[in-house]
Write a structure and sequence with these properties.
The chain is built from five helices and no strands. The protein has 156 residues and is mostly helical. Helix 3 packs antiparallel against helix 4. The longest helix is centred in the middle third of the chain and has 35 residues. The protein is elongated, with a radius of gyration of 22 Å. 10% of the residues are buried.
Amino acid sequence: VMQGAWVLPAGREHQALMTREASTVQANGGRAGVFACKAVGGGTDRDLLACFRADRAREYHEFAERADGFFAEIAKETRAKKFTFAELEEIEDDLAKLKTWLDKIAARDFFPDKQLKDARATLARCEQGLGTFADRVYRAEGAMSPRTSVSKKKAR
């Protein structure tokens, strides 16, 4: 990048991050500085907030689309009665990717609102879907599901 600027909400973490980034740029022969500023003229805090929220909205929308794909994969394997440990592992990997991705989005969501809450609810439904699929895999493989053995222990 020849020239650029980052705008982040004021805070120690962001100041430390930008200071490290500036040091990296300077160590590589570039020029960089970290400044605290206030909006003047046409810019407002509301405008900046709208930009941040619009960026996260796009990410949350894509997350929801990928979650839909996750549910579609479970439905496809269920229709095909493909209740194998190999399929379960693939779906577990997909869920792990969704969790990691949501964590990254949430870390960038400096002004969390309903979108984050909805995304977390979607992730919880994904976890439930995986659990249901896992139970079917364990039954098909003639093994006791870890979820079943835990609930039996609690019932005692």
